[in-house]
Amino acid sequence: MDLFSEAIYTRRRAQLKTLVGNGQILLMGNDESSSNFEHNHYPFRQDSSFLYFFGIDRPGLVGLIDIDANKETIFGEEATIDDVVWTGPQALLADLAARVGVLDTAPLHRLSATLGATVHFLPPYRPENILKLGAWLTKTPEAITAGWSKPLVESVVALRSVKDDGEIEELEKASKVTASIHLTAMKAAVRGTREFEVLAEMQHAAAMANSSFSFPPIVTTNGQTLHNYYYGHELREGLFLCDAGGESAKHYAGDMTRTYPVATTFTTKEREIYDIVASALQASVQAAKADILFKEVHLQAALVIAEGLKDLGLMKGESVEAVSAGAHALFFPHGLGHMLGLDVHDMEDLGEDLVGYDDEVSRSSQFGLKSLRLGRRLQEGFAFTIEPGIYFIPELIEKWQSEKRFADYLNYPKILGYLGFGGIRLENDYYIKHGKAELLGPAVPLTNTEVEDFRKSLD
Amino acid sequence: MDLFSEAIYTRRRAQLKTLVGNGQILLMGNDESSSNFEHNHYPFRQDSSFLYFFGIDRPGLVGLIDIDANKETIFGEEATIDDVVWTGPQALLADLAARVGVLDTAPLHRLSATLGATVHFLPPYRPENILKLGAWLTKTPEAITAGWSKPLVESVVALRSVKDDGEIEELEKASKVTASIHLTAMKAAVRGTREFEVLAEMQHAAAMANSSFSFPPIVTTNGQTLHNYYYGHELREGLFLCDAGGESAKHYAGDMTRTYPVATTFTTKEREIYDIVASALQASVQAAKADILFKEVHLQAALVIAEGLKDLGLMKGESVEAVSAGAHALFFPHGLGHMLGLDVHDMEDLGEDLVGYDDEVSRSSQFGLKSLRLGRRLQEGFAFTIEPGIYFIPELIEKWQSEKRFADYLNYPKILGYLGFGGIRLENDYYIKHGKAELLGPAVPLTNTEVEDFRKSLD
Asked: What percent of chain B is predicted at pLDDT more than 70?
């Protein structure tokens, strides 16, 4: 059975039409992106909503769903003889459209005259799409940026949040590539190697699977920096953190993090912190069920972290109160996870609050909790990450200590003994199946014993 | 001696000021580019002219050279504590500016009020820069797109065309990485391998040198397609073409092409065509000297190709006339080369005609010759590629034959016997030193014997 058949795309568009109700839905495909001159391109990445509803992985297209006229059209250009000489024979746009159940195609210059009074479009995250929409709708860039359709966003979120069988299969494939990228890193990350050399091996593992990264990997001896994209350090001692994912052929994302010692085994200090993070992950997986608020899962992970750190003397006082106040965020300043799908932060372009929150639960403004991308109730078919972490961020510790922030809960003299420790994050991907969190992809060494055993086996 | 010292950048800006004469010169740095949502970024690539005059490899900056007020300022934002938590400690903008001799920095919101009546800017190739310039100068996107400064473009071209010692050193480094990428490909491209697997090995070679590609590589069993970016075919027989380059640490580009048989040795038919292309390359290197029109070098290569093909019976009639008419372009439909520097097609964003042509020589409209990017006289310090090729493009042959185009010069019945042959291109990088074309980087197997010997040595 073809899980990405014409019928699937036709049904998705029919559902979208029903949800939006009236007017015209204009879905912008992406163009090529220029690096240092117009024709030097980054690897093409199609827009994810365009992929979801129209499935065609080619630049320069626009999909128009006219609800009132009950007509679907893909706008774009057919290849010329010059195109064929330079880039080879191309499939006809009409044929590509037919494969996803769209019967009409037309050149782009016809689009503008086709547009009526009510045109729904998504928030444009690519500047070229702001310019194009502005030209077609004769509006300023500011008006386009502000003019996206909330009914369309809510409808797309409603559909894309619940993954169908074909999407779960793709997420499994993405997680499989992701696992192979991580096992490769765990082999390459040994003393004397430099970060970019580990990255080179990971990239090779992805490329040999005809895949690519779903986001720029974090490959670092400085795990305390949440998004470190500098790869110049040599691996000498301490901890090494790797956060990376691959894409499936249909562009579904994997996202995984592992942290391990450059040496074969953890020091006691490292293992103590590591075990807290691993416990927070396990507790979160148990807690993440259908109908549970993901915000509650996040807070439960925070509580595991606070209690663990209290046992080590780094925190003090009542842990529930400390978490409620946000004191734990000195160590765990980010969210527990996010939706996963065609985007590694799924649908982030549609606005994090409309994706991860709803009428029932809104985003907190508290440091730490404000960075939680997913707060609402989990549902059958939701795919998401779980990624707790503990970090010792010198600049943040210094700032909070100087402000005496949360002095009732934070044992600063003891904390200062962890400067230079770095950071630990552990992350897997899950989806809700039969009400419970099911792991996506194969298991990759996770507990301190599994990690040490794997690393020892390389000697 | 530091070939990229503060003094070098200061001198480049002083020269630019003198050439432009008056007003304000606004050089846009690049931003991060989004792939599938705003915060999922492609690898950052700074604008090349910004790198040339300001040297700072960080997103979100603007350089302003106020000629009338004799003041240079870099506009941009310093990191906040949130930035430090997420992306680690950052160098101060003021410190980065001082290293390239710029004494003033200011936040971006101050830029607009600083701009006077005469603001020179370069043609924006990134849509976000069109939007930003429009907001700062209160102009429409169309006015910005049309509003670039010809005096500024001509001045930047005058300076960037002639490479200084530091730039030649960087080009040598880029060519060295490029050679290693190609040797890796020559080892990997064996029967049974797939194109993306060869690409994976090439990417690995670049990444292990802490480098990246200067453009998306062409790695193909279908060399007749000039820019084939599909990598799915298995290597079975016939020819394999690889066109790829690496970047130096300061983002100077290499660009090299090799074509070789999937089998260890060439067939007679392959070797005959190969030798013509190799001869065209050698003849071009001899011809490329200071004060010679590169258009003449191109035409000389075309003549070598036409005569070689005549010897094989694929062309007929007087070769000089055939080349003058453009008949050879059925086989050699692209230009012989282009400028090379911070961009692989150096300064292509400034407009190919203002870079590669001048008052003396303008671009032809003839098929083939119209694709020649560099036509003007070579000068000491110019860096450029030489890349002749012979291709059998089925769609083009079919079209021309049906139109009986150049039937006096083209032996169509014989040509049809080469359908399925593919294409051969050979390319090296050079610069003019002491009046002559000097090879950039180490030699990589080129003659049919060198290629066969190298490939045999892998068995």
From this structure: 100
CA distance B412 to chain A (A): 18
In tens, the pLDDT along A152-182 reads 999 999 999 999 999 999 999 999 999 999 9
**Residue A44 has what pLDDT?**
96
B344 and A210 in contact by Cβ < 8 A?
Answer: no
Does residue B374 have a pLDDT over 90?
Answer: yes
In the A/B pair of chains, how many CB contacts fall below 8 A? Answer: 175
Please tell me the distance in Å from A293's CA to the nearest CA on chain B.
Answer: 25
The pLDDT tens digits of the residues spanning A76-89 come to: 998 887 887 788 88
DSSP of B156-222, one letter per residue?
HHHHHHS--HHHHHHHHHHHHHHHHHHHHHHHH--TT-BHHHHHHHHHHHHHHTT--BSSPPEEES-
Interface check for A82 against chain B (CB to CB < 8 A): the answer is no
Asked whether the beta carbons of residue B348 and residue A197 sit closer than 8 angstroms, the reply is no
A229 at interface of B, judged by CB pairs closer than 8 A = yes
What is the reported pLDDT for B23?
Answer: 98
CA distance B301 to B281: 7
Contact criterion met (CB below 8 Å) for A345 and B37: yes
- Identify the three-state secondary structure at position B378: coil
Spans of chain A below 70 pLDDT: none
pTM of the model: 0.96
- Per-residue pLDDT, averaged over B118-124, amounts to 98
Q: Give me the pLDDT at residue B81, please.
A: 79
Phi, psi values for residue B213, rounded to 5°: -70, 145
B127 with A126: Cβ contact below 8 A? yes
Residue B87 pLDDT level (bands cut at 50, 70, 90): confident
> How many residues comprise chain A?
459
pLDDT attached to residue A458? 87
Burial state string for A211-238 with b = 16 or more CB within 10 A and e = fewer than 16:
bebbbbbbbbbbbbbbbbeebebebeeb
Q: Among A46, A232, A349, whose Cβ lies nearest the Cβ of B38?
A: A349
- For residue A338, what are the contacts with CB-CB under 8 A and spacing of at least 6? A345, A346, A348, A356, A373, A374, A384, A385
Percent of chain B with pLDDT over 90: 94
Positive or negative, the Cα torsion across B125, B131, B134, B137? Answer: negative
Most A CBs within 10 Å, among B30, B33, B37, to test the A interface: B37
Q: Do B89 and A399 touch (CB under 8 A)?
A: no
| B203 touching chain A per CB within 8 A | yes
Nearest by CB to A204, which of B33, B203, B216? Answer: B203
Distance from C-alpha of B416 to C-alpha of B394, rounded to nearest angstrom: 9
The answer on pLDDT for B448 being more than 80 is yes
ipTM over 0.90? The verdict is yes
Q: Which residue of chain B has the CA closest to A215?
A: B40
